[in-house]
Amino acid sequence: MADISAAAVSSLRGRTGVSILECKNALEEAEGDEEKAIEILKKRGIVQAAKKAERDQSEGLIFTSEGDGVIALIFLKCETDFVARDENFVALGEELVGILSSDGEEAAKALADKKMPEAVQKLGENISLGDIKRIEGSTLGYYLHSNGKIGVIVSLEGGSTEIAKDVAMHAAAMDPLYVLPDDVPAEAVESEKNVWKEQLAEKGKPEEIIEKIMIGKEKKFREENALVSQEFVKDPSKTILQHLDGATISDYVRLAVE
Asked: Is 161 in contact with 215 (CB distance < 8 Å)?
């Protein structure tokens, strides 16, 4: 077997857009001959699949899988909602998320590299693996929206699976960007402050009054964008923090087909 250099793999990848693993395998089979390697890839339909990869993928579905103390979540992307509903696309998503749950991220990515070219050929449009998440914990809950477009995982310290599922369902509906008010980045706050200052100045508010109003606006902005301080959608009389009843959120992931 030919000794294939990283430079040779990089060159073939640059010409074909095919994955590093597929390039290396083709070069080994072609004993280092790049032109022969390209022909091998063409015969496998992989180069055509790579060309399709240049096309935009704004559709797809979210898939989840639950194991013993673990929940996995993947976004499998495609070009059209028609393909997203195809049974072959759905079967691929379920297989990938199952492997992610049981064997981890590297195994899921390796399977995707192996399965994706064939799926692209069969379905006739670009398909790729988007965000993938795998959360381990003692108290886990997830929510997958009925349309398959939004998936959430919540891991708690304390509490119960039921509470974790409630929080995941809430997060799917309300799309909080952060867990705690203090998690909201200073840059995001400063960006909003610039807008608030202009608005208040236009209303003729004195500088000293503006500064006091800004404190309240910042507090509200942080709370509105933080999961724990939002009003619980199933019972707006209390916040998520109150619904947690002493439990704390140790991990939170939300994936969506935008």
From this structure: no
Task: Give the 3-state secondary structure of residue 249.
Answer: strand
- pLDDT, tens only, 100-146: 999 999 999 999 988 888 888 888 888 889 999 999 999 999 999 99
The pTM (predicted TM-score) of the whole model is 0.75
3-state class of 131 per DSSP?
strand
Q: Which of 52, 71, 86 is the last residue of a domain?
A: 52
Element (H, E) at 219: helix 207-224
8 A C-beta contact, residue 173 and residue 223: no
pLDDT score, position 55: 65
For residue 175, the tally of other CB atoms under 10 A from its CB is 14
236-251 pLDDT per residue, tens: 999 999 999 999 999 9
> Can you give the CATH number for the domain in which 39 is found?
1.10.8.10
| Strand partners of residue 239 | 231
Residue 256 placed within a domain: no
Supply the pLDDT for residue 49.
Answer: 58
- Check residue 227 and report its DSSP letter: G
Which amino acid is located at 72 in the chain?
A
Q: Which residues of 211-247 are buried (b: 16+ CB within 10 A; e: fewer)?
A: eeebeebbeebbbebbbbbbbbeeeeeebbbebbeeb
